[in-house]
Design brief:
single chain, alpha/beta, Rossmann fold, 6-stranded parallel sheet, binds adenosine-5'-diphosphate, binds magnesium ion
């Protein structure tokens, strides 16, 4: 193992590990975790999305610090009144470092909330409460979601954190020179070889209906993923099982809860359907973002149905219905929503794919809108042979000018 993990942890400084897709950022993260584990250093391993967390065997930072979908640093006042705050605060005080992968999708506001929570828990006015922060990611990949939010590097907390940058430059994911050049050009918005790059991609274009059934399909938006999923479900033989969600509570709360929960109002599955989990299992058998297949659907003695899954890690698990709740400040339940905590997942959004390596990949570019989405999608696979694309005419390369400028300044400094 190289000595970088040791140097990083011993320095106790805040670090930002960056570099293009496939440069080994998450690989280095894992080496840091390994070094920490064998040297009595406690590091929390987290990421900005559920799928990114799975990639590094961690949990989401939202879950770890208990802030969920909140963006505002004022939320800390509410958080410290929650019954689970003492446990969160105790955890924050136990550890030596916090690692966050895929930091590009964490907003400036969320970073300030994270900073505020750590300060509060550790009763310290130092940046991030004096904990060592190890940020990992690439700001030339997907930006945070939300109106009027900025990148983490635009926050005051980032500046006060006095962060040392490690810029990785190799590419371990893609071997072909042509493909690497294409990806690098797309990442930074360099159009000097655009006709060559267009030709390479045109060569990979197929019709939507010819997509190889073994492939994971990346799409721009959730509703397109849903469309693909129903299409694929239709192709499976066997009995169809339908489950309707049950919503309770006052209409206003009920509606807003069912809108924020990702589980379908009507879930339809068959044996062998590809699925993704939407919540963390209390026993840790799966987490939000774990993928697998439906093995069977059974009825238990009391007539309640449950679904048996074969997860991608080979584990077989039984999944029962889950109840999401909306509560007021006194933890009184205002509304609830009951459904199986899973969704069909042949098609997934580019947003969910960031961080993953997907060998057999099809990208449907229809409706592409976010900056860097084209780069994130294309950089998931290892080789052009394993890639097919559709709706290439909708593929637009957009590089965020602020992120580009951030790297220009960063790299000129070295
Ligand atoms: N130093 C390394 N030696 C060998 N393989 C590596 C190394 N770094 C990364 N890889 C492999 O390359 C792929 C991409 O690495 P990853 O860490 O996921 O990249 P990033 O997080 O920068 O996008 C992974 O399959 C990983 O196992
Ligand atoms: Mg990564």
């Amino acid at each position: 193992m190289n000595n970088l993990p040791k140097k990083i942890l011993k320095s106790k400084k805040n670090i930002f590990i960056t570099g293009p897709a496939g440069s080994g950022k998450s690989y280095l993260l894992n080496q840091i975790v390994e070094y920490a584990q064998t040297n009595n250093i406690l590091a929390a391993v987290t990421a900005s999305t559920g799928t990114a967390a799975i990639n590094v065997n961690g949990i989401t930072i939202h879950k770890f610090l208990g802030f969920g979908i909140q963006q505002n640093k004022q939320y800390v006042k509410t958080l410290i009144e929650k019954p689970y705050w003492p446990r969160i605060a105790a955890d924050i005080n136990k550890i030596d470092a916090v690692i966050i992968d895929e930091i590009s999708m964490i907003s400036n506001k969320q970073i300030e909330l994270i900073d505020t929570i750590m300060k509060e828990a550790r009763h310290s006015s130092k940046a991030f409460g004096g904990l060592q922060m190890i940020f990992v990611g690439d700001f030339l990949q997907l930006p945070p979601i939300g109106r009027g939010v900025g990148y983490a590097f635009e926050s005051l907390s980032w500046k006060e954190g006095d962060i040392n940058v490690i810029n990785l430059t190799n590419n371990y994911r893609q071997k072909e020179t042509d493909f690497r050049e294409l990806l690098n050009a797309i990442r930074i918005g360099d159009s000097s070889n655009i006709s060559k790059h267009k030709e390479i991609l045109l060569d990979r274009e197929i019709k939507q209906m010819d997509v190889d059934p073994e492939k994971t399909i990346l799409v721009s938006k959730n509703d397109r993923a849903n469309k693909y999923n129903l299409f694929k479900l239709d192709e499976l033989k066997g009995k169809e099982y339908k489950f309707s969600a049950i919503g309770k509570g006052e209409k206003e709360y009920k509606n807003s809860l069912s809108k924020s929960v990702l589980a379908d109002e009507t879930l339809i599955v068959k044996k062998h359907a590809r699925i993704i989990m939407l919540v963390n299992d209390v026993d840790g058998k799966y987490i939000n973002g774990t993928q697998g297949y439906v093995a069977n659907v059974f009825a238990s003695k009391d007539g309640k149905e449950y679904i048996t899954l074969e997860l991608d890690n080979g584990n077989i698990v039984d999944v029962h219905k889950y109840t999401w709740t909306a509560k007021d400040y006194n933890d009184k339940v205002l509304a609830s929503y009951e459904q199986f905590p899973l969704k069909l997942a042949w098609g997934i959004t580019i947003h969910k794919s960031q961080g993953a390596t997907i060998e057999d990949l099809h990208i449907d570019f229809a409706g592409l809108f976010a900056p860097s989405a084209m780069y994130v999608a294309l950089s998931r696979t290892t080789s052009l042979d394993k890639l097919t694309v559709s709706n290439l005419r909708n593929a637009r390369n957009m590089t965020d000018p602020k992120a580009k400028r951030y790297y220009e300044i960063l790299l000129n400094k070295d």
